[in-house]
């Protein structure tokens, strides 16, 4: 039992040692990269514990407090949730501490950018302590994580809309023929990809000889949305552009694919297993790395974006580089003593990482529905299917709203 109780401590300690070796090299400009590394380390730790910790968690009495021992899948899910809770608390505490920072003279600005050895130690201690809390705490966190993950997905959608509009505007403002041709090429490629991808989905998820009305509905709805985006964007009264519509169409097709591919492997309408081999550990690791990169990018990009809760004293232009930022601009100025405003909201930056911690736990546990699936499969089950298909529909609704809102409320500024 002593070995089991020290499992999280040993794993967190390994991650702590790796991070501490680089902590002294962290500068103000690379602080956001360091937070990314800490977050990525928590995801890797979650994955490792999910794969190997179940036999040891059996021997911890306050975790295995059942008359009849649950299956290994329950312990795998529990380990992931405990690491996620520790990571969530770390970033949530920082989000609360950073409320109200407006300029770099605030003492808390140094807390945000420095003290990395202490931060890593606190992060490791929080994760270890989460393996000492009773199961009821984890159950409550599991429920809250579903709502937090929904908020994170909503942030991702808003970020995508902001990105596509900025991309379109930047090329249109160049007012050169080559950029207009580039816009046209991107638009055509995106729409061709959407329709071709939808055709592949029909072949994979509507196999002959089976009644797959739900899958057909999902795919047809995706095609209808793609046409609707183009019609609304090209309407004379709508100040829209066809290029963002095409990019959103591809993204919706991708969400439809991820939703359908998350259907249980034994579901007769999931024909994906006929075109690919059974999920292997190497494929899971590759998928995990992809998840790490996408979640980390989303958290960092959202935290530094001027679209999201920029401090009142911060210039709207924000940082050109979302990872490194431009916080060192102004060096050598004559008025060096004047307080420089922070370039992004520290509170919102940490809040996004906290929500991303919840989201990553849901990914690794199949939205806590993985106990009925094979233990080696991640992010599979009907809960995942509906979460992702609803994300697609919310994406479509928000995009159409950005197009028609100026018509419905002409007195408001939506720029």
Automatic annotation (TrEMBL):
Q: Which UniProt keywords apply?
A: Membrane, Transmembrane, Transmembrane helix
Which residue intervals are annotated with compositional bias (Low complexity) in the record?
A: 305-317
Region (Disordered), start-end ranges: 305-340
What superkingdom does the record give? Eukaryota
Is Zinc-finger there in the keyword field? no
Instruction: Give the record's membrane topology.
Output: Multi-pass membrane protein
An example Gene Ontology CC term for this record: membrane
What Pfam family is a match, any one? Serinc
Ranges of biased composition (kind: Basic and acidic residues): 328-339
Q: Where in the cell is it found?
A: Membrane
**Membrane-spanning parts:** 32-49, 79-101, 116-136, 181-205, 212-235, 281-300, 344-364, 385-409
InterPro entries per record: TDE1/TMS
Q: Which family does it belong to?
A: Belongs to the TDE1 family.
Sorted alphabetically, which PANTHER family does this protein's record hold? SERINE INCORPORATOR, SERINE INCORPORATOR, ISOFORM F
Q: What is this protein called?
A: Serine incorporator
Q: Which organism is it from?
A: Urochloa decumbens
């Amino acid at each position: 039992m002593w070995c089991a109780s020290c499992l999280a401590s040993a794993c967190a300690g390994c991650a702590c040692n790796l991070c501490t070796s680089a902590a002294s090299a962290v500068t103000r400009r690379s602080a956001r990269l360091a937070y990314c590394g800490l977050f990525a380390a928590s995801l890797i730790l979650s994955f490792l514990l999910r794969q190997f910790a179940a036999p040891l968690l059996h021997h911890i009495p306050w975790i295995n407090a059942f008359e009849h021992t649950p299956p290994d899948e329950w312990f795998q899910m529990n380990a992931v949730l405990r690491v996620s809770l520790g990571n969530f608390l770390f970033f949530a505490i920082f989000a609360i501490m950073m409320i109200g920072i407006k300029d770099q003279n605030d003492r808390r600005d140094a807390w945000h950018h420095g003290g990395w050895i202490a931060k890593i130690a606190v992060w490791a201690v929080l994760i270890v302590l989460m393996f000492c809390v009773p199961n009821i705490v984890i159950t409550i966190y599991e429920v809250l994580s579903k709502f937090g993950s929904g908020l994170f997905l909503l942030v991702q959608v808003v970020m995508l809309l902001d990105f596509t509009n900025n991309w379109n505007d930047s090329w249109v403002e160049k007012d050169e023929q080559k950029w207009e041709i580039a816009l046209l090429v991107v638009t055509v490629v995106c729409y061709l990809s959407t329709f071709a991808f939808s055709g592949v989905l029909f072949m994979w998820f509507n196999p002959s000889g089976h009644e797959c009305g739900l899958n057909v509905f999902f795919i047809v709805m995706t095609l209808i949305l793609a046409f609707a985006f183009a019609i609304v964007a090209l309407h004379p009264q709508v100040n829209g552009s066809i290029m963002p519509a095409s990019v959103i169409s591809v993204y919706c097709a991708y969400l439809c694919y991820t939703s359908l591919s998350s259907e249980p492997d034994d579901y007769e309408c999931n024909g994906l297993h006929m075109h690919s081999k059974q999920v292997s550990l190497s494929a899971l690791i590759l998928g995990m790395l992809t998840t790490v990169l996408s979640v980390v990018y989303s958290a960092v990009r959202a935290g530094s974006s001027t679209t999201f809760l920029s401090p009142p004293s911060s210039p709207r232009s924000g940082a050109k580089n979302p990872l490194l930022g431009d916080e060192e601009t102004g060096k050598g100025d004559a008025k060096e003593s004047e307080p420089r405003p922070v370039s992004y909201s520290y509170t919102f930056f940490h809040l996004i990482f906290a929500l991303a911690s919840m989201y990553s736990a849901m990914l690794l546990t199949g939205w806590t529905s993985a106990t009925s699936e094979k233990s080696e499969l991640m992010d599979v089950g009907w809960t995942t299917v509906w979460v992702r298909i609803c994300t697609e529909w919310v994406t479509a609704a928000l995009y159409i709203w950005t197009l028609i809102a100026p018509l419905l409320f002409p007195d408001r500024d939506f720029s």
